[in-house]
Amino acid sequence: MNTKECIEMAESSILHTYNRYQLSIDKGDGVYLYDSDGNKYLDFQAGIAVYAFGYGNKKINDALKEQIDKIIHTSNLYYNEPAATAAKRLIKLAGMDRIFFTNSGTEAIEGAVKTARRYAYDKDGCTDHEIIAMKHSFHGRSMGALSVTGNEKYQEPFKPLIGGVKFAEFNNLDSVKSLVNDKTCAIILEPVQGEGGIYPATEEFMKGIRKICDENDILLIFDEIQCGMGRTGKMFAHEHYGVKPDIMTLAKALGCGVPVGAFLTTEKAAALKPGDHGTTYGGNPFAAAAVNAVLDLFEQTNVLENVIEVSEYFEKELDKITEDFECVSGHRGKGLMQGLILNKPANDVVLKAIDNGLLVITAGAQILRMLPPLIITKENVDEMIKILRKALQ
Ligand SMILES: *Cc1c(COP(=O)(O)O)cnc(C)c1O
Hints:
Blueprint: H1 3-11, E1 25-29, E2 32-35, E3 40-43, H2 46-49, H3 58-70, H4 81-94, E4 98-102, H5 105-124, E5 130-134, H6 143-147, H7 152-155, E6 165-168, H8 173-177, E7 184-189, E8 192-193, E9 199-200, H9 203-216, E10 219-223, E11 247-250, E12 261-265, H10 285-300, H11 303-324, E13 328-334, E14 337-342, H12 346-355, E15 358-359, E16 361-362, E17 367-370, H13 378-392
Parallel strand pairs: 3-15, 5-6, 5-7, 7-10, 10-11
Antiparallel strand pairs: 1-2, 2-3, 4-12, 8-9, 11-12, 13-14, 14-17, 16-17
Helix pairs in contact: 3-10, 4-10, 11-13, 12-13
Bound molecules: pyridoxal-5'-phosphate (PLP).
């Protein structure tokens, strides 16, 4: 099936909730993707921060094949070794105590929100606890996750959402403080906002939020679904700030293409009890095998060093682009999570880039978002910059 045929068939049957780029991806190899017509693209979106180790990684693929031949699914009524192992490894890595595996990011957020509500309920027996979330945040599309997503456009048609959610200004401590009261059970934020426009939190904000939470026995939830798993050059973005959460959510690169998410809690915040929460698929042996393979690669390769080294170079190149192009007013981000700030529609540049064999995406109307596989080289950056310059012209 060529690209045109694929698009026609998809558009006649799949619900039109996305305005997709006119590309049908057929296969991947390393940091490159190929469409159904055989065209090659340098991929600086990685399936939206998913494919940390690029396409066709042999170690991941072999581990998945081996698990398929053993068993894919068991249900959570029984134990399975891949999940037990992945759980142990992840809580150790994150310095947390408990984990629950989900199938997606939005479900991880659901679990985090339920945990916070349960924690507060256990304390005072009341049911009207509030959550403070951030403007321009993104936490997912299910009703609970949408309720804490600071985007009026996404929320409006689906109201009423879950109650008791208030929105503060990101990186503005006073704004958060003004919303805290004795009903507040959680503050949720992304250490680096992704969809909202690649905004890294300031250190002052992160430390201040932690203090507010400590003083008021409020649970701090970090959504590391996009910025976690090595994306910023640390395993988890909050490590840049020396501030720890009570609950953390992961997904995207956690399974490097296999749908898996998780929420992790400290022992104190591990409020969910038998019967409070569940999932048919979450943490099944196949998904857990993916997590273990991904964790193996983080252990066995120097990928975090690569992120730090290549992103330094990348940022210097983005500095030059900022100087050279009037339509670029700057860039921001951390590690290999970068946003180029444009003063024109970012999607126009994305389309030009695609025409020239480069995949990048947007984050809001005027931010060009770049989330390459973590294994990219400086040569890949050079190749990318060359195409980006063309696309900007
Ligand atoms: C992508 C994303 C989500 C939602 O994850 P899904 O797997 O798409 O449900 C939540 N939070 C952040 C920060 C994300 O980037």
